[in-house]
Amino acid sequence: MIRHCFRLxxxxxxxxxxxACASAPEQSLYEEIxxxxxxxxxxxxxxxxxxTDPVIGHYFKGVPKKHLRDQLxxxxxxxxxxxxxxxxxxxxxxxxxxxxxxxxxxxxVEYVQGAMRDVGLTYQQENRILKLLxxxxxxx
Length: 140
Fold this sequence. Notes:
- By secondary structure, the chain is mainly α.
- It is built from 7 helices and no strands.
- It has helices at 2-22, 29-33, 35-51, 65-79, 91-95, 102-118, 123-133.
- The protein is globular.
- It starts with a helix and ends in a 7-residue tail after the last helix.
């Protein structure tokens, strides 16, 4: 009887330990990709390409590259579980009166995707980030 009770106690203790290990907090997407440094690199690469693009580059004349990069990093950081708080302009505020066409928007997205690949993100990580970024296109 004592052995049986002891076995039950050991099984219960092991169950608690296994459950505790299994419920360890998951790493955020922000941490998974390498945090601020990776986001800064992604947007640095993308912005260099965007500013020289013959179709969309003109939209960014007069916008300092560093300012745009910092804003995009903050915005993405917040969306993917990082410690940042984006308090910049909404998409509508930033783009009012520019008459940006859908295909021009997607040119920019392709530059960001290419930069994600260039810095070594997996397609899964890239898609998870884009899924979180996509809804802000329509924010007002």
